Amino acid sequence: MRTETLEYKDGDVTLKGFLALDDQSDHKRPGILVMPEAFGLGKHAKERAQRLAALGYVALAGDPYGDGLEVDDLQEAIKHAGAIRETAEKFRQRGRAALDTLAGLPQVDADRLAMIGFCMGGSFSLEMARDGAPLCGIVSFHGALETDTPAQAGQVKAKILVCHGADDPFVPPEHVNAFQEEMTKAGANWQVISYGGTVHSFTNPDAAAAGMDGIAYHAQTDKRSWKAMRDFFDEIFA
């Protein structure tokens, strides 16, 4: 497996993503964009990109903030996340910059693209779907579901899988219900899997480091949701 830092641009902002792929293969493969949690591009998203590469995909873990910034303080993360999410247009453009970079790689079949994300990265994925990005599918793991710019009828091209902790205090049932209603009105192909006994950030073994109630790793849900993603990819790339 080959891994490397991959620089790309969003306007005048230099971004430093993490690319993982099987360099023993010379045929074009589906490309998967991985967007990280609000702490920035760190080991969790990079490890997931490598796992995807081991499955035969070309995976790019995107840089949400620029210069590969990663923070370890929750309040600092909230500050940076708030800045990039200032407008839907700004947020979506940052995701588009990464997706365009992935699609342009010689190893990638640009007609077979997908996107996954964790927490804020899940929101990135959903906003890209709402914007009509050329994706076969997206997967949101414990991502926020609300938006200021709902999907319009016929706009969503990607199939959608949302993996949600049923006890997540940051994504309450009313947000889930509103999301489902939004996607139904938009005519999207969507599914939501709610995992019982599961709170926010359930895929990250280091979640407890945030020191906040309602944020915890859940090994069984992590395993189940990853399998759901793999089955979903088998479907959309068939």
Task: Note the topology.
Layout: E1 2-10, E2 13-21, E3 29-35, H1 43-54, E4 58-61, H2 74-84, H3 88-103, E5 108-118, H4 120-130, E6 137-141, E7 159-165, H5 173-186, E8 190-195, H6 219-236
Parallel strand pairs: 3-4, 3-5, 5-6, 6-7, 7-8
Antiparallel strand pairs: 1-2, 2-4
Helix pairs in contact: 3-4
In short:
This protein has 238 residues and is α/β, with parallel strands linked by helices.
Describe the structure.
By secondary structure, this protein is α/β, with parallel strands linked by helices. It has a single domain, classed as Alpha/Beta hydrolase fold, catalytic domain (Rossmann fold, 3-Layer(aba) Sandwich). The protein is built from 6 helices and 8 strands; from the N terminus they run βββαβααβαββαβα. It has an 8-stranded mixed β-sheet, sandwiched between helices. Helix 4 links the parallel strand 5 and strand 6. Helix 3 crosses helix 4. The longest helix is centred in the last third of the chain and has 18 residues. The model has no long low-confidence stretch (mean pLDDT 97).
